[in-house]
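Bench log, entry 3. Co-assembly request; chain sequences pasted below exactly as received.
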Amino acid sequence: MNIRVRPDSQVPIYEQIMSQFVFAIAAGDVQPGERILSVRELAAELVVNPNTVVRAYQELERDGMITSKRGMGMEVAADALTICAERRQRIVLTRLREALLEASSAGMSLVEVTTLISNEWPKPL
Amino acid sequence: MNIRVRPDSQVPIYEQIMSQFVFAIAAGDVQPGERILSVRELAAELVVNPNTVVRAYQELERDGMITSKRGMGMEVAADALTICAERRQRIVLTRLREALLEASSAGMSLVEVTTLISNEWPKPL
Amino acid sequence: MNIRVRPDSQVPIYEQIMSQFVFAIAAGDVQPGERILSVRELAAELVVNPNTVVRAYQELERDGMITSKRGMGMEVAADALTICAERRQRIVLTRLREALLEASSAGMSLVEVTTLISNEWPKPL
Amino acid sequence: MNIRVRPDSQVPIYEQIMSQFVFAIAAGDVQPGERILSVRELAAELVVNPNTVVRAYQELERDGMITSKRGMGMEVAADALTICAERRQRIVLTRLREALLEASSAGMSLVEVTTLISNEWPKPL
DNA sequence: GTGGTCTAGACCACG
DNA sequence: GTGGTCTAGACCACC
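Structure output for the full assembly:
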């Protein structure tokens, strides 16, 4: 799994990290039980403050996506897949709804938005 | 033109005010040359601190959407329509792009997104 | 004497009116004892709020440049010429000093400024 | 770089702060990428309300002179030098033009002004 | 009446 | 620690 963050994005770095984990787990890129990078390792790889990774991991753990194994690092939780699939859906939906609400209140029609989306649909990375 | 703000939104109140002006001007709800509510009036109407309105107005002014007539309030700038139309497009596009990028990186296909949007398209207010 | 104001200038309209009177009197365009436009007339001519003209006239009167003749309007004061000449000097000097201070603190040399001034010297109107 | 403000000046404190940054950057006193004083630090140093510094920094940021690194303070932007050099020129020119226009309309000749300037040229601080 | 500036102090998210 | 936003209330200049 490849994690990348955009430090200049509007969305907080720790949230970017979280989303990427959620997406990776939901997609099956990482399996339940699999060990994940340590805080220090990931922080070094992303060139990011370790505290930021700590926060992302804490929230992921609180939500049951990862679990800490008594001083041996952290791994993907057993039931992470279900949670992540649901959460992925929720993240995407929320963001899309906001964008649509704004487009609508800006006076755009459904047709216009649909056309625009077809043009803007990002190419696979 | 009716302005409403959600004080508990993620997006700052002064930005909400700005967007609504941009959209209202772009839609022709208010004409260039037309006087807008005074800082105190709008603050009272929105139940918001006057300074918050001041900030929104100042940013709108420096972007050329409104102009201040010393001691006589503020009015929609002569060339506000062009600016606002362009900016509206930009605001909506930016937000949509981010949402689509996320949907894409979450593994959704263009078809799925399009379907989802048709279902989620907000009803006119 | 021709008075013109720039409503969008940084300097207050009433000050613009005052300066122009000072300059006109100092230049001899209007003579002591000569009647000046009434508040209403000047306000109409400049398309300006009468209160603004009132303020300009009040300050001019307070400084001895014009005097009100019992309900018959206002006229240039007897000793206005001396006062205005002195004041004109002061106005120009103050403004120039500020500009030079800024230029200097911006790192420009005297030579640069002198050159620049020769190029920028406004053509007679 | 030493920043000083005159609290009793006509020009707003936040503008004084901005100008000093522009001049300092244009002069190369601070380099692109260099970290600048935090809001609280500068506010304490100038004995000024932090919000005043915030305003100055925000306007400098939106004009591309400095950039904010979330949670890590602000630094001089990469292309700040170009912007600041251009802006410095503009600030000085505008102020000088106004002063010259006034001097001219007061009836002074170019020679008089040049002489006056040589006498008034402020000594280096 | 209008906008413009400043202070004081609070709370928040982020790293 | 950092910046970002908001409130409250004050004073000012201008029209």
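Residues 65 and 80 of chain A are 5 Å apart (CA to CA). Chain A touches chain B at residues 19-20, 23, 26-27, 88, 91-93, 95-108, 110, 113-114, 116-118, 120-122, 124-125 (CB under 8 Å).
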